[in-house]
Design brief:
Protein name (chain A): ABC transporter substrate-binding protein
Largest interface: A-B, 61 and 60 residues
Subcellular location (chain A): Periplasm
Number of domains of chain A: 2
Family (chain A): Belongs to the bacterial solute-binding protein 5 family.
InterPro entries (chain A): Peptide/Ni-bd, SBP_5, SBP_5_dom
Number of domains of chain B: 1
CATH topology of chain B: MetI-like fold
Number of helices of chain A: 19
Number of helices of chain B: 16
Oligomer: heterodimer
Shape of chain A: globular
Keywords (chain A): Signal
Order of helices and strands of chain B: HHHHHHHHHHHHHHHH
Amino acid sequence: MIFKNKLAVGLLMGALGASAASAQSLVYCSEGSPEGFDPALYTAGTTFDASSHPIYNRLTEFKTGTTEVQPGLAESWEVSEDGMTVTFKLRQGVKFHSNDQFTPTRDFNADDVIFTFDRQGNEENPYNDVSGGTFEYFSSMSMPELVESIEKVDDYTVVFHLTRPEAPFIANMAMDFASIVSKEYADAMMEAGTPEMVNQAPIGTGPFQFQAYQKDAVIRYLRNDDYWGDPAKVESLIFAITPDASVRYQKVQAGECHVMAYPNPADVQAMKDAEDIVVMEQEGLNVGYLAYNTQVAPYDNPAVRRALNMAIDKQAIIDVVFQGSGEIAKNPIPPTMWSYNDAIEDDEYNPERAKEILAEEGVEDLQLKIWAMPVQRPYNPNARRMAELMQEDFSQIGVDVEIVSYEWGEYLERSKEEDRDGAVLLGWTGDNGDPDNFLAVLLGCDGVGGSNRAQWCNEEFDALIQDAKVLPTQEERAPLYEQAQEVFKQEAPWATIAHSVVYMTMRPEVEGYIVHPLGGHIFNQVGLSE
Amino acid sequence: MLNYVLSRLLTFVPTFIGVTLISFAFIRVLPGDPIVVMAGERGMTAERYAELEAQFGFDRPIYVQFWDYLTGVLQGDLGNSFVTKRPVWDEFFALFPATLELSLCAMVFAILIGLPAGVIAAVNRGKFFDRALMSTALVGYSMPIFWWALLLIIVFSGNLQWTPVSGRIDLLYYFPNPTGFMLYDSLVSGQSGAFASAVRHLILPTIVLGTIPLAVIARQTRSAMLEVLGEDYIRTARAKGLASKRINGIHALRNALIPVITVIGLSVGTLLAGAILTETIFSWPGIGKWMVDSIFRRDYPVVQGGLLLIAVAVMIVNLTVDMLYGVINPKIRKR
């Protein structure tokens, strides 16, 4: 346990005999333990909830509750005409936290920005291999290829030189891996011979300061009274790690925590009916799909793919597999994302017509393998059950389905193969709220043989998303993405199945909680009524 | 006695080597590549894959990897978790006291109730108490842990509000945990009410984890007692006119204890290694859940290191049990 002596808030409140529902400390029943506290090293949402959101800031920030990007530690930014350089003007007077080992001697400045990214991309940087140094998000967002160099113009001006114009770059800077760490702290810890403390006893600029972590049990934070933005509403924030969903709910009911994440779908109705419980909901930034292999006959024929899509009873899947905690997907991007094309009409559920189309296309005695993932994911809580429902649906139109599955790692690898036999159940959770992060990654020509499980390369679609990627503003990009979604619907490389619905359960005294579409749980502006 | 202990200790060596080899092989035999699992849907480039492979040492022949692991183990280095990047050793010792504390409490609970219950049932063989007790034990033994735990939580924490729902202590108490044993740490913390809170938090998990061993101990005690009560020397004792309390309590129970202690020893091992469900439900920060999560993530160092340390703990318990046999039955230690 990492412990700080000087702040024994517990003592004070213990003496007052207050319950966990004290007005000054907010208790969140979280679903699991963070892997660590340096967000750049990890990829799990649970880790980001405990690290990047309370403790850190980024150059740009997502406005809570939206995928919109707003100024963070950068007050403003400017993209050059050719899109190849981005200049950030940094905020002045921003203080880093302090702890027992470290007290900052200076405010946040350009050195911290350069250090934050240099350690992730530069193998020469002494922090590149500290704490196992695998900066997976930095790599998977193609940052090493994208960023040519970072230049410090003065203490409060930083220029990123890019290798190509890339509109989503500004949103990438708001992602968790881009959380700004203190160079001064890192240097001090390196000198003390304990560089791993950057990960274990984090120092950031965020609204809460890390206090202590007891593995798999409790994480404690205190309000950062020197915070540059709106200060947090509560004095302390406590994460009570509670892996079982039913137990989390019992704890909320008993007043042992104020807010909980990920309720059992089966409990949601009872929660909504309970008087002293508030349930919030929003579509998650994800999509679950069935990807045909569009390179293998007869699935290379869009008419056949559309016919199969018409045979799937999606509502039944929502009811049975998601137990209501999902919404039918008609587009490859979720409805909370900008450029979502709501004008598109989903394929009607019409097995009779589907059968006719297959006959028209000369397809008979079709046999299809459906790959069912062996794991539970937010976009697909039970792939095996989903595949069984589809098997039944397809048998109605004379298609014989065999369900196959592999170990998760093998599943991910094998499903990439271009000559794969069968249609794959899979999905995606968004990273930066940018449509490019769905459409290019999952459906672009570059992804064939990789993350494009439909092995689908359509010139018209690809040209649209490539063009959209280099345009500077959202207004200019959105129409291209809307058009791309039309092409997608027409060509039907996937059956889009569902977006999960995210529920948050809390006590009525919790004020100001906003469900964030990017999936994080953020308590910066959450308060408790008396 | 010393020779006896030493000879038992010697058997540790091959067991230790065997466990090291098995734990190393076990996780590698499971299908699934930890790097691919780590990347998830996002995937990674072939170059990145090769880089990580080299970093984790998977590109070297398997016997070289085993040799490195073995030499590391002998120097007390179990490696770092792929996931948290922290030393396996540190993680284990941050979590093990919680498991040990809970397991010991559960065992004490099971023995304190199971042993007398078994004796009383045996003495009253065939009577109402015996039948009621044995049926209850059967129910306890077959009870699904998950359901039993949730039932207790809903009744005692939810409806009656007698006990807290989960965790080890009320979150308002905040003090250092030098030993990791919450009962002790709360007692020396000097914070009023902390110890009581820790005890209250232990009640339900202790009952849940102790239920199966309790049932096993009660049944085992009963059958061992019945066997002993039928022996000639007991009949002789009765014929001599000894008080039945003395016969049951000293002559019979002492001899019936050997198989019971075997069962207790085995149960402690099971508890240490198998408290996973109880730990998950009661948000108890122990090693059970840590191990299972690591298997799913293919976190090789944690799985092999964790298995090894658990095996050592179980070996120590078995040694203790063996020595207890010696104490109870002098014939054994002279062998």
